[in-house]
Amino acid sequence: MAREYHGKKSTPEYHTWKNMRRRCCDSKNQDWHRYGGRGITVCPEWRSSFTAFLGDLGERPTSKHTLDRYPDRDGNYEPGNCRWATPAEQARNSSRNHWITFKGQTRCLQDWATELGVTHECLRKRIKAGVPLIGRLRDPNRCRHGHLLAGDNLYCMPMTSNQAGTRICKTCKREDMARFLIRRGKRRGG
Ligand SMILES: [Zn+2]
User: Fold this and answer.
1) Is a pLDDT exceeding 60 seen at residue 95?
2) Which protein residues have a CB closer than 5 Å to ligand 1 (ion)?
3) Model-level pTM?
4) Which of 37, 124, 125, 157 could be bridged to 166 by S-S, CB 3.0 to 4.6 A?
């Protein structure tokens, strides 16, 4: 490989380039298993030339920006699949394959998390746990188990109670009561 003289060895872009190559091309690198080890490569132009890399990506806009593979997070480091991105942009990218449809709207995990006021990680964990989506996302017209809070299934606590106005799902209430009676029955029987 021909040596390049670009006078930019102390720039953050140069460090980014060097680390990218190590992750993908050096099997002794501590991050190898997440990059080169699973087939992620650096295109030949960028691998052999920092000038080509810098020419395609430009300088990093701010110190908050880091190198991000985009739009294909599992793709290679190559022109058309890399950008400088902020942590928020990267979080969005990491969830972009995780589309969630709720109440007729399809959005990525990050957007739902923002709207619901929970962290991306929190929402991802809940979804992984497999609770029905509708309960997790708190449709105001449904109980946390997804039963419709309307008509015969809805009971509102009277204004005189200390839980005034609280809406109770009758289906859940019945199921709770049934479980309670079974537990009590078992204790008595035993
Ligand atoms: Zn319910």
Assistant:
1) no
2) 143, 145, 147, 169, 171-172
3) 0.51
4) 157
